[in-house]
């Protein structure tokens, strides 16, 4: 490293639970190291997520790893997330290996047979990154203390053991019980795994840190391990979240905190929270606009006051179509279209707005009637489209990315990106298009005009700059509230030696 740490070092960020803050902490460490002139890369051996991204090489990886690569100021690649699992139901997922889908597999089948082979793949990817970068910051998944899965683990202690990386465990104190979680997580591990648990990071703390100090001292006395920092609670840091399945519908609002509306009115956006919702991060660029309020909804009456309704991507297009009909949302969307009120379908949401879907791949449901709001017919192919298209719409340059099995045959309407527009119903396969500032502003002007709102998009909102500011905030959290010298020491030298073993159940 340019600041004295040796080439090829690293660290694994684990968590006491899912959503403890591993992704945010990993991104924060990457941004902090990048500021120090360290050439750093993120890594997550195995990710389960419906929010994914397409790299410039045409590989599909988790959006969280793409965000962490941006935090590290490097180009994301498939090496950074070699295994991506995309749930299609409670019991099966599509397996994406090195950026390409290799088939569907049940949870039992996945954990029962492929792990030894996959461990070789992920360790090879990690070693390639270590040969290129000064440091690699790995993110774990769930908890390393999921002892029912330890034998087949390739993302937590499995990869830490293979690389001999020290592990810092993150705990969300906002949930409560963080000290018990730290102790229990450590105590449940084998002696070999415990030898790599270097210490802990408290996340999402509200209040006076001095009140925590007695607990941290007691924890050190019980475990022999230090707490490397207490990160304060910060709103608006859950960028590029991994799982759309966990979006809470009631009160789920993404509202601009940048500034009040530029015009006289706000613009209200309702996002249909379809089953297996994917890449719901598409609407983050809308929520970044001053005066735009974005809500996730699941009832037709919630569309009544919406100026724009978005039908987002989904890993289950036919399932989402049935859900829209069962909930009465399909009729509400048809009524909006007839009244000339704006609707935008993205990827799977675009597909359900069409006339017909032929699916022998994803749902194997055969031919299914769509909502008939766009003159489009969709046929699912086994080969997945993974692309980074560029183009123009509404007189503005647009960039996006495509992730879909469905191939759309557009039979009419006005061309719109790779899809079409009929009246105020718009459809495209392009994720991320709303991050193009000029296009987003032009689109919102069209929506406001159709909705009769005196809404004016801000002329200077840059989604890219806002994202950079968020990533800088993550770096600030680490730099200002973590023991960065100790973290750098772990990255350089590995876990401290002589750490005590805690027999399970011991005080």
- The rounded Rg comes to 23 Å
Strand proportion, as a percent range, falls in: 25-35%
Corresponding CATH architecture of the largest domain: 3-Layer(aba) Sandwich
Structural class: alpha/beta
Q: Could you report the average pLDDT, rounded to the nearest whole number?
A: 91
Distance between the termini: 40 Å
User: What's the number of domains?
Assistant: 2
Summarize the main sheet: 8 strands, mixed
Major sheet: arrangement of strands: 13-16-14-17-19-28-27-26
> What is the number of E strands?
28
Measured as a percent range, the helix fraction is 25-40%
Shape: globular
Number of helices: 15
The low-pLDDT segments are 1-6, 244-258
CATH first level of the largest domain: which class? Alpha Beta
CATH superfamily of the largest domain: P-loop containing nucleotide triphosphate hydrolases
CATH fold description of the largest domain: Rossmann fold
Domain CobB/CobQ-like glutamine amidotransferase: 268-437
Protein name: Cobyric acid synthase
Family: Belongs to the CobB/CobQ family. CobQ subfamily.
InterPro entries: Class_I_gatase-like (IPR029062), CobQ/CobB/MinD/ParA_Nub-bd_dom (IPR002586), CobQ_GATase1 (IPR033949), CobQ_N (IPR047045), CobQ_synth (IPR004459), GATase_3 (IPR011698), P-loop_NTPase (IPR027417)
